Amino acid sequence: MNLTTLETPCLILDKKKLKNNIQRISKRMATLGVNLRPHGKSAKNIDAMRMALEGQEGGITVSTLKEAEYYFEQGIKDIVYAVGIAPVKLPRILRLIKQGAEITLLLDSTQQVRFVAEAAVKEGITLPVLIELDCDGHRSGVTLEDDSLIAIGTLLHETQGVSLKGVLTHAGESYQCRSTEAMTAMAEQERSCAVACAEALRHAGLPCPVVSVGSTPTANFAEDLSGVTEVRAGVYMFYDLVMAGLGVCREEDIAVSVLASVIGHQKRKGWVITDAGWMALSRDRGTAAQPIDQGYGRVCGVDGAPLKDLIVSGANQEHGIVSDRNGEAISWESCDIGTLVRILPNHACATSAMYDRYHVVDASEEIVDTWYRVNGW
Ligand SMILES: Cc1ncc(COP(=O)(O)O)c(C=O)c1O
User: Fold this and answer.
1) What's the half-sphere exposure (Cβ side, CA atoms, 13 Å) at 371?
2) pLDDT score for 272
3) Edge to edge, what strands does the sheet with 127-133 contain?
4) 112 and 127 in contact (C-beta within 8 Å)?
5) pLDDT of amino acid 129
6) Contacts 24+ apart (CB under 8 A), 99-104
7) Residue 9: closest CA among 351, 322, 365, 286
8) Residue 310: what pLDDT?
């Protein structure tokens, strides 16, 4: 079976690129002397995760309970659920723990400590917890200056049903950096924030064995990770146009693409119409704010090589509009109706989420496997 036998649109994963991407970061982490806790939210698939865990201690990160349940069923026990906790999530978490999973929770308020502890005590268990830190103003978390850091730490340490395991931060603002120097500086900001908060907890007589940081840009550009015990990253497995635009990877490193068919021509406008609209690509326009706007995706031939300056410049639900970003003429003879193209995504996690499986190739157009994804919550 090769790509020409597939019905479009569908999702293609190049195993060779996946492996290279994984090995590159694994080597970096080994050089920096720190364990990698891969994030399962990008691939949402055990085969990719097993590859990512080679040479690591074995723990993973997840962003949904569906991922936690799936990876646990596949034999992974040590799981950090790296999203703030709400009471409604606790029954599933407690069920997983009773089955043998080692789930660590994340929170950033004393209110959360109280309801987590109450639920855990009722079940007769103790839940390990990380305090979420805000290292860059990106999202949630407490800062070193907040009184709540020590207040949460103390409550976690003193309350039955919970235990203080450490601190966690994610430099999501690294996606807004515009140079490698800025990403290196952001990596240091992420590290120093986590280490300073860990030190403050220890200074207050509290335990803080885990100091967890990470995002794909900071994992790529960190020069020193002293004081950090683990790095989390997810999209590094696949990479995407946003990462290429940041200079974190090259376009040719991007391991996932959407296979689409040409379904029409709008010659007056210089448009090729495909069957990959935003349902196939997602509505993510992450490159819109970057120096090179890739529209809804970069268009490549079925062999994966970019086609001149073709991008998906517009998208309706089931139609993609392909045009040349510089307004150059289209070579109509090379894109007959039915011609296959491969579209590189802006954001690999968002595009992959539109599909339930990967058609896996290995540096060729031959399909070597089908890997399923665990979507939903
Ligand atoms: C808490 C947390 N850790 C790690 C990551 C991984 O970041 P990336 O996908 O840039 O590797 C994310 C991504 O959203 C995250 O939310």
Assistant:
1) 21
2) 98
3) 35-38, 230-233, 210-213, 162-169, 127-133, 102-107, 78-84, 60-62
4) no
5) 98
6) 99/72, 100/72, 101/68, 101/72, 101/77, 102/77, 102/78, 102/128, 103/68, 103/79, 103/127, 103/128, 104/79, 104/80, 104/128, 104/129, 104/130, 104/165, 104/210
7) 351
8) 98
Alpha helices in 176-254 (DSSP H): 180-203, 216-221, 241-246
Q: Where are the domains of the chain?
A: 3-10+255-372, 34-237
pTM for this prediction: 0.97
Task: Please state, in angstroms and rounded to a whole number, the distance separating the CA atoms of residues 151 and 128.
Answer: 17
Smallest Cα–Cα separation from 9: which of 366, 345, 308? Answer: 345
Ligand 1 centre from 214 Cα, in Å?
Answer: 7
Torsion sign over Cα 92, 94, 100, 106? positive
Residue 238: CB within 6 Å of ligand 1?
no
Q: How many CB atoms lie within 10 A of CB 73?
A: 13
* Nearest one of 239, 269, 243 to 255, comparing CA atoms: 239
Dist CA 38 CA 40 (whole Å): 6
Residue 368 neighbours by CB under 8 Å, 6+ apart: 15, 360, 361, 362
Atom of ligand 1 nearest to the CA of 106: 1
Q: Which CATH class is domain 34-237?
A: alpha beta
**Cα distance between residue 132 and residue 109, in whole Å:** 9
Ligand 1 atom at minimum distance from 349 CA: 9
Q: Is the CB of 232 under 6 A from ligand 1?
A: yes
Q: Identify which of 63, 215, 216, 246 to mutate to test ligand 1's pocket (most ligand atoms within 8 A of the CB).
A: 215
The best mutation among 21, 25, 39 to test binding of ligand 1, ranked by most ligand atoms within 8 Å of the C-beta, falls on 39
Ligand 1 and 235: CB distance under 6 A: yes
- Give tens-digit pLDDT for 122-137: 999 999 999 999 999 9
Topology of domain 3-10+255-372 in CATH is Lyase, Ornithine Decarboxylase; Chain A, domain 1 (2.40.37)
